[in-house]
């Protein structure tokens, strides 16, 4: 069985978990306090980051590379389209959420409000929180624009781009930092992806000291 070293609210870990679950790959979850720099964990990934996946006799790091490996090795159900142009668009949007969205929103909200407390790194920086709260509006509006032209974020079928976005938004939703009233299109998109069987494990997450809001696991939120 595969084994994933993860942190429950890490969007990068959640993206890998969603890919594994969608492809029905059984996987044991091992919560890893990567910030403690445990020597055993550093042997698995010298970069000291999660996720780390042990599968097929290999130990893999970096969420984008892991998801691409899973797509190539376990091709069904497909999370990447067939044409080069469509695959480019998926990769562009995965990078958008894992780079731009993460830098402007996730790191400013989730990391300030949750990670700092868990890692005992002090109190949230209110300037960062305000910046993140402002930036997420822009990103939600961009998603709404995409969904006005497409059924899913990257096109007419659900792809890894949707999982990347949902991984970040679900982590932020756990701490009630998403205004789902801002866009009906984004809310409907999230309701569709949230109702998939692959999402059940994520909706069951519980972080000590941070109980989720009542609507978090509600499929009719």
Automatic annotation (TrEMBL):
GO biological process, one term: glutathione metabolic process
Example of a GO MF term: glutathione transferase activity
All copies of domain GST N-terminal, residue ranges: 1-78
InterPro entries: Glutathione-S-Trfase_C-like, Glutathione-S-Trfase_C_sf, Glutathione_S-Trfase, Glutathione_S-Trfase_N, GST_C, Thioredoxin-like_sf
Gene3D superfamilies from the UniProt entry: 1.20.1050.10, Glutaredoxin (3.40.30.10)
CDD domains per the UniProt record, alphabetical: GST_C_family, GST_N_family
Listed PROSITE patterns: GST_CTER, GST_NTER
Domain GST C-terminal stretches: 83-215
Subunit and partners: Homodimer.
Name the record gives this protein: Putative GST-like protein YibF
Organism: Roseovarius tolerans
């Amino acid at each position: 069985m595969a084994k994933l070293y993860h942190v429950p609210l890490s969007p990068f870990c959640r993206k890998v978990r969603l890919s594994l679950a969608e492809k029905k790959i059984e996987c044991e979850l091992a919560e890893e306090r990567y910030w403690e720099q445990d020597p055993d964990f550093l042997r698995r990934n010298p970069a000291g980051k999660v996720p780390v996946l042990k599968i097929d006799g290999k130990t893999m790091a970096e969420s984008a590379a892991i998801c691409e490996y899973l797509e190539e090795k376990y091709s069904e159900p497909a999370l990447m389209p067939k044409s080069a142009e469509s695959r480019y668009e998926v990769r562009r949007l995965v990078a958008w959420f894992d780079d731009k969205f993460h830098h402007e929103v996730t790191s400013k909200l989730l990391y300030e409000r949750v990670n700092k407390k868990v890692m005992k790194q002090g109190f949230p920086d209110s300037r960062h929180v305000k910046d993140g709260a402002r930036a997420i509006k822009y990103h939600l509006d961009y998603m709404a624009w995409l969904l006005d032209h497409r059924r899913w974020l990257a096109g007419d079928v659900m792809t890894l781009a949707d999982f990347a976005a949902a991984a970040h938004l679900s982590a932020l939703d756990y701490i009630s930092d998403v205004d789902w009233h801002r866009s009906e299109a984004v809310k409907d998109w999230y309701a569709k992806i949230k109702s998939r069987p692959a999402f059940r494990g994520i909706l069951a997450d519980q972080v000590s000291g941070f109980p989720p809001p009542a609507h978090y696991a509600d499929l009719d939120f």
